[in-house]
Design a protein that fits this description.
Elements (H helix, E strand, L loop, with lengths): L8 H11 L3 H25 L6 H12 L9 H26 L10 H5 L11 H14 L1 H12 L4 H8 L3 H20 L6
């Protein structure tokens, strides 16, 4: 089964059952998208300093969503929730790792470098700083933050994001460039702590 919105009654029924907290429906839903989530998690787990295994990241994402009374309207809503859950799992893992080491042992990375596929285990993303920057971006422009979440955390392409958000692929590409520039400014700014 594929998760799509092209009038597929099975998908609509599955999403409706998930909205009611049906665990079996969540199992079916995750089985349909597991390979995609696993591929994305592999990239994210490596970039986050391997604080979580790929499988653990996908399973923790599943646990964050399963059985909750989430009103899943469509495929876009599911992927937005999955991306947010994955981001939260990574953030929690990074915070836990930082709690074990003074200073967290996190290497500072630019947003451009963070978005590149890591070449080795030495390339890390400061997930906590990225989360703070995304929160600031969301307060300025929610759609830009959503584009980053769907592209970076869920691994969706611009065409898919455009379809999900009801905008053109070109608009998504423009939003992506704007979001990267705004996040880069936030990540490059010196941290001033009171």
């Amino acid at each position: 089964m594929q998760l799509n919105d092209d009038g597929d009654g099975a998908t609509a029924d599955l999403l409706k059952r998930c909205s009611g907290g049906d665990v079996a429906a969540y199992d079916t839903l995750f089985a349909a998208v597991y390979a995609d989530l696993h591929n994305r998690a592999r990239y994210l787990a490596r970039g986050a300093g391997a604080t979580l295994s790929t499988t653990a990241l996908v399973h923790e994402t599943y646990l964050k969503l399963v059985g909750r009374d989430l009103a899943l309207n469509d495929r876009a809503h599911f992927f937005a929730l999955a991306a947010r859950a994955m981001r939260q799992v990574l953030l929690n893992a990074a915070r836990d790792a930082a709690a074990h080491k003074r200073g967290g042992g996190l290497a500072a990375e630019t947003f451009d470098n963070a978005l590149a596929v890591p070449s080795d285990a030495g390339d890390h993303v400061d997930v906590v700083a990225l989360d703070q920057a995304l929160r600031q971006l969301a307060s300025i422009d929610g759609r830009l933050a959503q584009v980053v979440e769907l592209h970076f955390f869920a691994g969706l392409g611009f065409a898919q994001i455009g379809e999900l958000l009801g905008v053109t692929e070109r608009t998504v590409a423009r939003d992506w460039r704007a979001a990267r520039a705004m996040l880069q400014l936030q990540l490059d700014a010196p941290n001033v702590q009171p």
